[in-house]
Amino acid sequence: MAKQKNEWLDWLKALIIAVIIAVVVRMFLFAPIVVDGPSMQPTLHDNDFMIVNKISYRFGEPEQKDIIVFHATESKDYIKRVIGVPGDHVEMIDDTLYINGEIVDEPYLDSEKEALADGGNLTNDFTLEDLPGNYEEIPEGYVLVLGDNRRNSTDSRYIGLIPEDQIVGKVQLTFWPLDRIGLTK
């Protein structure tokens, strides 16, 4: 009887330790997230399941082209691509991205640009000064984000610059559906 009781206590301890480890990993290191909507197509699709690295920006800063998750409202998180970082001046002219006056290649948009049936631009022209806040350059502690589906994305063009303290983490891995499993680029 005592041996059976000790075995149950060992199992209970192991279960409690596993739950504590899972909670710590989920709260501080990594978290699963599901894409809700088409704003990041063709890179990410509605209902893709991904892993968000919550610690990447504790040791570094967001970089251009990172895909991030951030708190857009108290109850809603958005997934977007970082386009501009502190010190940058951003403008879009005739579907060409300029950062600090230099052309920046966006290969993740090539298929979408080629597929434009109406011959128009994927991204409407704008400058940083046109966005909410009327900044001349992105201030410290903020990033400018855009969705890859530029014609259907609520991003910095509408909601303004994103405070870095609202960033949840960097999207690094898609794990569902299985045919889309892989590192996120």
From TrEMBL:
Biological process according to GO: signal peptide processing
EC number per UniProt: 3.4.21.89
Pfam families for this protein: Peptidase_S26
Coiled coil: none
Peptidase S26 domain segment(s): 8-176
Active-site residues, Swiss-Prot/TrEMBL: 39, 80
Catalytic activity: Cleavage of hydrophobic, N-terminal signal or leader sequences from secreted and periplasmic proteins
Principal place of residence: membrane
Top-rank taxon: Bacteria
Entry-linked PROSITE patterns: SPASE_I_2, SPASE_I_3
Transmembrane region(s): 12-35
GO CC terms in record: plasma membrane
GO MF: serine-type endopeptidase activity; signal peptidase activity
Entry membrane topology: Single-pass type II membrane protein
Localization terms from the record: Cell membrane; Membrane
Keywords: Cell membrane, Hydrolase, Membrane, Protease, Transmembrane, Transmembrane helix
InterPro entries, per the entry: LexA/Signal_pep-like_sf, Pept_S26A_signal_pept_1, Pept_S26A_signal_pept_1_CS, Pept_S26A_signal_pept_1_Lys-AS, Peptidase_S26
Alphabetical list of NCBIfam families matching this protein: sigpep_I_bact
Family membership noted in the UniProt record: Belongs to the peptidase S26 family.
Protein name listed in UniProt: Signal peptidase I
